[in-house]
Amino acid sequence: MLSIVRGFIAVIDAINYRIGRIVMYGIFVLMGILLWSSVSKTFFLPSLWTLEMAQFAMVAYYILGGPYSIQMGSNVRMDLLYGGWSLLRKAWFDLLTVLFLMFYLAVLLFGALSSTAYSLGYWGGAPLSFFAGLLTGAEEVGRMEQSSSAWRPYLWPIKAIMITGIFLMLLQCLSELLKDVLRLKGETV
Q1: Range of 51's domain?
Q2: Residue 187: what pLDDT?
Q3: Contact 47, 153 (CB under 8 A)
Q4: CA of 179: how far to CAs of 50, 67, 90, 94, 155, in Å?
Q5: Rounded to an integer, what distance in angstroms lies between the CA atom of residue 109 and that of residue 97?
Q6: Residue 43 is assigned to a structural domain of this protein
């Protein structure tokens, strides 16, 4: 059983590490979009897509980089008391707080699934059955949601990225939870 837990931790950490290292360079994509926005506003006609595309790039950068941030321990903490605690006490506290985070992420994931189903033209109350129906062919995509801006992009791609990022964050939290359990049992992580 211990080898399965260690294998799960290794796989999730490897996936989120690789995705995080790739997404880290998304800041250059964002900079390029904002640079083009400045150049086009100064010398040409302003581009309609730059502001909203910069927002989408920032969401992708933030949401897909979150699991990597948790894995590297670079998330924000109140270090007033935590920094002076022993590793065992930190593990107990992290075990408790990661459970709250996982509950929050599960609620957020359900909301993202509902929002994505809505953006694909589903107005019902069971988004999971809608996605299952899409896979089996029982459901089909309806009138897709578009932004209300002048550019009017479809919103489902960024919402799908949000689902992916929240799911990866949930898996990383589970990995961190299992690491804390191993630490409490006296195992090396």
Answers
A1: 2-77+85-184
A2: 87
A3: no
A4: 42, 15, 12, 10, 36
A5: 18
A6: yes
CA-based end-to-end distance of the chain: 15
Going 170 to 173 to 178 to 179, the CA torsion angle's sign is positive
Instruction: Look at residue 55 in the predicted model and tell me its pLDDT.
Output: 95
Task: Please say whether the beta carbons of 63 and 166 come within 8 A.
Answer: yes
Confidence of residue 24 (pLDDT cuts 50, 70, 90): very high
pLDDT 10s digits, 100-147: 999 999 999 999 999 999 999 988 888 889 999 989 988 888 889 999
**DSSP β-bridge partners for residue 154:** 146
Q: Could you tell me if residue 129 is inside a domain?
A: yes
Give the DSSP letter string of 130-146. Answer: HHHHHHHTSS---S--B
Is 69 inside any structural domain? Answer: yes
Considering the domain boundaries, does residue 189 fall inside one?
A: no
* The model's pTM: 0.90
Number of structural domains, the chain?
1
Q: Which amino acid is at 145?
A: E
Q: Report d(CA 168, CA 99) in Å as an integer.
A: 16
